[in-house]
């Protein structure tokens, strides 16, 4: 099991809570891992455990987890600047950057705004503008895409066990209930009166979701993409439905626009299990291990097989 520590990184309005797995060695390969729109850094526990020789640095984004009291405005440029502050505070000259879901959007904007900090990009079921019907309000987009994941933010739960029961029927987690998920759900709660609420700020969700389908910072980052990048797609979506967050036809249309974008499916996964259960977590960790090693090799030298 990878060692785990945490750090508080100064950013506008307070500190960004950051989890760090792996060796306490400044020479070890580093990966900056960015979670999704209503998630926390605990999303990455299983991936990090599969990378014991790599420093996996994963903040709770502004408005989420133990960073949820940080003030707005939110949005991808703000998250990108917060992420840059994390790397600089930990004196990391650069890192391989991986983002899941909304984290992939933040990763792209980070690479566009702070290119010297990014070695390469791995986008996990995110990063391309959401394929939603035109004319939807931001609230309608949230409901259409996130469903129960967004609805829980307005609810008060009597206990952590009550919160687990809320998630238990969720189709994405059927057959995937594991220790990581239990840890993730326990961490997601904060006291509220005599009960508990999920830690994500509703305002952060609203502002950030608007950018996932019409954000200018994202479109600029895609248009000016200059880093090696690959996208790992889950064939099934947030409710374990086909064809997933991105249909094969939609992916193909973006492949035509970005011919250097490498795209591959991770079989047997949905939007959540691609990082929160195997075989997804193992597959993502394998890609990241290859990136972390190859970026450290002298030019022209191939990784050992």
Automatic annotation (TrEMBL):
Residue ranges annotated for the AB hydrolase-1 domain, each copy included: 29-143
InterPro entries xrefs: AB_hydrolase_1, AB_hydrolase_fold, AB_hydrolase_sf
Key words, A-Z: Hydrolase
UniProt KW Hydrolase keyword: yes
Coiled coil: none
Top-level taxon in the UniProt lineage: Bacteria
GO molecular function: hydrolase activity
Alphabetical list of Pfam families matching this protein: Abhydrolase_1
Name of this protein: Alpha/beta hydrolase
């Amino acid at each position: 099991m990878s060692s785990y520590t945490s750090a508080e990184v100064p950013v506008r309005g307070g500190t960004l809570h950051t989890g760090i797995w792996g060796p306490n060695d400044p020479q070890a390969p580093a990966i900056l891992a960015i979670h999704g729109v209503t998630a926390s850094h605990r999303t990455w526990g299983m991936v990090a455990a599969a990378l014991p020789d790599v420093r996996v640095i994963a903040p709770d984004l502004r408005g989420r987890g133990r960073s949820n009291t940080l003030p707005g405005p939110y949005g991808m440029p703000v998250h990108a600047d917060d992420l840059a502050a994390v790397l600089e505070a930990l004196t990391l000259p650069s890192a391989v950057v991986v983002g899941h879901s909304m984290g992939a959007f933040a990763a792209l904007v980070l690479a566009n705004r702070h290119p010297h900090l990014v070695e390469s990009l791995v986008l996990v079921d995110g990063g391309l503008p959401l394929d939603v019907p035109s004319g939807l309000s931001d609230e309608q987009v949230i409901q259409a895409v996130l469903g129960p994941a967004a609805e829980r933010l307005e609810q008060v739960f009597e206990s952590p066990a009550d919160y687990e029961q809320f998630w238990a029927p969720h189709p994405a987690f059927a057959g995937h209930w594991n220790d990581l998920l239990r840890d993730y759900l326990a961490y997601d709660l904060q006291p509220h009166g005599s009960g508990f609420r999920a830690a994500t700020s509703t305002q952060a969700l609203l502002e950030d979701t608007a950018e996932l389908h019409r954000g200018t910072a994202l479109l600029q980052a895609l248009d000016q993409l200059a880093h090696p990048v690959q996208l790992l797609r889950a064939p099934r979506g947030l409710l374990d439905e086909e064809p997933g967050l991105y249909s094969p036809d939609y992916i193909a249309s973006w492949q035509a626009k970005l011919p250097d974008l490498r795209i591959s499916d991770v079989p047997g996964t949905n939007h959540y299990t691609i990082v929160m259960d195997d075989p997804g977590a193992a597959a993502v960790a394998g890609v990241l291990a290859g990136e972390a090693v190859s970026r450290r090799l002298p030019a022209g030298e191939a990784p050992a097989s």
